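FW: tagging you since you asked about this chain on Friday. Here's the raw sequence from the shared folder, copied in full. Didn't touch anything.
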Amino acid sequence: MNDTETRLRDYLNAKADTVPDSAHGPGLELDSTGTSTRRRWVPMAVAAAGIAAVLTLAVPYLHGLTKPDQPSVAGLPATGPVSTGAPRIPYTTTVDNNPDNPLDTWWALLHDGGTTVKNPGVKGQVVARTEGGWFVQTGYPDPDKAQVAILSANGKVRPIGPLGGFSPSISPDGQQFAVALSKYGRAENRVAVVDIRSGKEVASLSVKIPNLELVGWNKDGIWMEEHSPDPVAVKLWQPGATEVRTVGTFSAGTLQVTRSTNIVTHITYKGDQSCVTAATLGAKGLETKRQYCFKAPVAAPYVSVSPDGATMTISNIGVAVDIATGKATKMKLPAGTKWFEDGVFEDPDNVIVVDEAGPAQKLFRCAVATGECKQVATAKPDETIRQVQP
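HL: got it, structure written out here
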């Protein structure tokens, strides 16, 4: 996530968890299609400059100065020197103030290996690489026109799935995707599952969840929740089943699902401490495999899990944690690096992170075993980078 408003939102959400339970107040956020109840998509054109100034003052942490409360001990086997080759994951760049690419189109160019694709007019975001090209979400800012599409290397866009579908989640095998069809104020909403190759809807579920949002899809099923400023019940559905399971209650937006592994993570806050918990689904709910706590910097953490479920990275303290042992590796990024968002794993051994410090954003490849980091790409000073799942 490279959206400045998103980072500020997550910081405010983190601080909101320190407010006493007796306190009340309004809490609407912008949704993935522009409606003020969810959080995936945020218009930037008006507020970006002011929020960037706030973040400059409020989030001045440097990775070289941040120390987690738990020791950083490289406990994983080294896999050789870190490559400086081009990223093996896709990423997009947005050119600021480009009249041919208004901010609300979200990206100007897609880069994937030696392939570069210019935005053919899609207002939305690139979600992941998929068969036939790249999986994109379209429709912003009109929620009724939100739809998934496949972008090909020649720039052709193939819309698939129902209109109004948002919050897309790709199946573990990459053959299907799920979207939420939810209207603000409606008590019952729907999850639709679509086959990517044929574009046909193959499964559907109606659920009594207002402001429905999908969290993710792994082998345990499709995880979903109500988008709300309050803690909410997270529910789980395996397509084809008739039962919907309640997993537990969590602060909205703090649970993260990675489709390639059964490891899920959630974030909790207590005073000045942040804790990231890696867990798997058990008979009675989530079963903790590892919890890593640290004194929270101002910026809220983003957590990424490796495709094999062995490692998690925590952005705001710049560490990789071995889930089996709890040993942590400090990422050896240059002093002054600002890593505000999710890292994206190329493979189980290497994660790509965005450094937002300085006049131009940079991409670094970091080995989670040793913490060694090498720069692999640099954006132009007027470009913003957003990483895409492989």
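FW: The radius of gyration is 20 Å.
HL: agreed, and The helical segments are 4-16, 48-58.
FW: great, closing this out.
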